[in-house]
Amino acid sequence: MCWPADPAEIARGKLLFTTLQPACATCHSLQAAGAEGQIGPVLDELKPDAERVLRALRNGIGVMPSYAEKLGPQDMQAVARFVAHATGAAP
Known about the structure:
Elements: H1 7-19, H2 24-27, E1 29-30, E2 35-36, H3 43-46, H4 50-59, H5 73-87
Antiparallel strand pairs: 1-2
């Protein structure tokens, strides 16, 4: 399924990417967010689609914690779509 990029949702996802605690930007590099984290994968290279990001947010992966208790479904979707949009991956 393909969703058009909603500018407000993309902006919300970017804000969450940089301000969550712990912030995604602490561990991940993502040029569109000005993030230069050194722990997790470089998202500009990995180019995860929105579903992959959602799975990681819900379940955690490796040392990345789950955000299931910190983010509601709409906020998770906003972060996932922001990352996919920013890297040019499938939404």
